[in-house]
Amino acid sequence: PRKILVDTDPGGDDTFALLWLQSLVKQGFAEWVGVTTVAGNVSPELTFANACKVLALGGFESVKVGKSVVWEGGKIGDAAEVHGIDGLCNLSHLLPNSPRQFAAAPDADDMIIETLEAAPGEVTVIGLGPLTNLAAAEQKRPGILRLAKELVLMAGAFDVPGNVTSLAEFNVAFNPEAAVTVLESREDVVILPLDVTRKLILTVEMTEAIAQAYPTLELAQFIHQLSQFMSNSCLQHRETAGINGFLVHDAVTLAYLFYPETLLFRRGLVTVETAGNYTRGQTILDRRHGTKSLTNAFVAVEVEAINLLGILVDDLKRLCSQ
Ligand code: BDR
Ligand code: CA
Q1: What GO terms are given for molecular function (predicted)?
Q2: Is the peptide bond before 73 cis (omega within 30 degrees of 0)?
Q3: Closest ligand 1 atom to 247 CA
Q4: pTM of the predicted model, to two decimals?
């Protein structure tokens, strides 16, 4: 099984990714080596608490969880308007509190460094939030991200509008300098941008099927309630207006790793705008032809959305059946 470290800011769609990964671990496809939480959708404390609760839901209490690196440079706010004030669709009170203490948790950057140094070339790192922790690890220990087997990010927007500004996607816009550091760390960063994640529209009918199949199971009801909240939230924000369902952005990273036949990629050089008043956080893929030796990324350009949503729902049902 593939060893996985997830860096995340749960987050409605992060939670779907975490639950999907639980299913994949239980099916024997993945081994979960840790979770680092990062400030983004909500605060460091809330992303930590949410990750712990979601792990406990599937019986993953023993997975180590790190807390966000503190970073004060933020110019854009969190995304509590989209994900609920608790970051968990205002449902976190329904889940038992985890006994884990935020104050006692390891710092995310140290945890990333230790995890990668302990198994060079073996651990796949998945980034589902702003790139603050990953960049901090790289700055503390230059070259560390190269020790990951693969680095897979939900990040950026290329040929579609952004979701924070007209050009910038949240995970990059939140901390563009961190995104630059991470993109400069390797030649093969795998990027799942809004271009594909916007097509992944999970409808309430799809999760209703899960809730109906397991009417007394807390997990199944939680999945459906999250989906209802996020669908409603989508309708209320102008960047997702008209979308009838929930964009499960972060989950696409797992599609790349475990169902790669559902995606198409373009290889190239991706840079991030850090200066412009209107363009800060924009991701740019250089598509000019000619001799260019430098590439740093594989950018997803197409996804078989319907097939993938079916696979996701099946795997979530499998998780519920255990
Ligand atoms: C990204 O922004 C966050 O709000 C989501 O969790 C996802 O990681 C999508 O742009
Ligand atoms: Ca996220």
Answers
A1: hydrolase activity
A2: no
A3: 9
A4: 0.96
